[in-house]
Amino acid sequence: MTEESRTAPTAAPSAGATDVQPDPGRGDLTRQLTVAISAVIAIIGSFIGSGAAGGTPVQDASGGALAADATLIAPGTGAFSIWTVIYIGLLAYAVWQFLPAQKRAVRQRRLGYLVAASLLLNAAWILSVQFDLLGLTVPVILVLLAVLARAFVLTIQSPPSGIADSIITDGTIGLYLGWVCVATAANIAAVLVAAGFDGWGIAAEVWAAVVIVLAGVVGILLAVYGGGRIAPMLSLVWGLVWVGVARLSDEPHSTSTAIAAFVTAGAVVLVTVVARVYAQRSPLSESMRGESMRAARPAAHSDR
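Below the sequence we write its predicted structure tokens.
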């Protein structure tokens, strides 16, 4: 060893180089428990919201403002079965993040508290409905949408460690986000109708078409930014299709709204497929994904 090497000061690691917490053991356990407890609270809230635990079913609460026949852009009752898939995914994530390989993963550190926040916000939304605080549901669901959007961005910036991580983490967050996009539009419409909004003289079908198209634009943006990720497209399209089904089979009947919903859903699917094909074939995209994977691996395993 040379004199220079013995006396030279050790360079401080650059910020974000390892992206670890000062006390990873205790900090990671706190995060894991927070996610797990939040998942339990959300599941209890879902039982209350379904009416199975003594609560009023969401579609019957708040004077039926959120029922399938309350507004032109309310999805049909069958659409809400997607919550079963989402909750299963969230419970799977709560278990997944406890695995030794995930405990100190940088990806889980970035996502954990966001997932927990989304679970608690979902429970808060259900309680708002149960207590007939319909106006409160709008800011709650908007914050939920923002939290899920941030989580979605992080899943792209921090690539999954494998297929299981991709399905459990990315798939669940994507499904959750896509559905909440549709739910947010339906929620705002329900609150406006309940408040007596008359549309400023513009026909309700026109407003419905505009809102549906805006939801579709969000879906297209997610598809482009996410490189054609399937999960958010599936749940968003699922919601739009059920809006169309409801308008053809239930009140208020509206053929034009159904057509707008079906066409918008088709556009989101088309753009998602194109974006996915482009992302897989683009040399630049492939190079960027490769660099992200190489950068993520040492960070994810740096403190194991």
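The radius of gyration is 22 Å.
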